[in-house]
Specification:
flat
Length: 266
Amino acid sequence: MPETSTPQPVPFRGGGFNPRPRTLFGLAVMVVLIAVWETGCRTGIIHPLVLPAPSEAATAFMELLDSGLLWTHLGASLSRLVIGWTAGTILGIAVGFSIGLFSLARAGFVPLVAAIFPIPKIALLPLFIIWFGIGEGSKVATILFGTFFPTVVATYGGVDNVDRGLIRMGQSFGLSWFSIVRKIILPGALPAILPGFRISAAIAIVLLVAAEMIGAEFGVGAYILMAGSLMAMDQLIAGVAILSTIGLTVSWIIGRAEKALLRWRV
């Protein structure tokens, strides 16, 4: 009589690539890196003129906070960043959707974007200073110009990658052109547009620092330039840490937006 085998449970394999949050692990990596950095400075392995200890940078940051200049520098930088990035992003989305939806706009704008996008935007800063002056106009224009092109490319790339079968299905059900754009193309393009925001935000921070280093009395970039001129490495690291915090905050905000707007992917 043949032996009956015991049925074995089959593990579930349909989860897909669904990354799980590991916030504590990322925090632990940061703590370990800072501890190694601090230990290297205190033991003399890392010379303080090359790289000051994190504790010295924290002291410089507290001095900046106590003097009240932190909010002056931060306010100047954030206002330039928000105005320039927001304007560049809105214009980029508008032009990107135009390219994705209209053949005439594609024929006119795509060669222009391909020609100007690779140009380092920092190289155009002197031109913007001539056009808009040494004040806020040239700084905001530099950030706007730098964030406009990656947003355009991400937007029309996202529109191009929307499943054509879904669009045909919408047409077969008699949806209007506006309804197809709102209900099919816009949600389908968002997974490409939102990561483009991360890239454009990083570019905006780089251009912000460059613009403030050339001609600004206040701003994080001006603070870093002054610290470098005085060889105050602790203040320089404190300024870089402020920029890193701005970048982390922007990334967190975009991540929240992705979770809210892309819940349909789960």
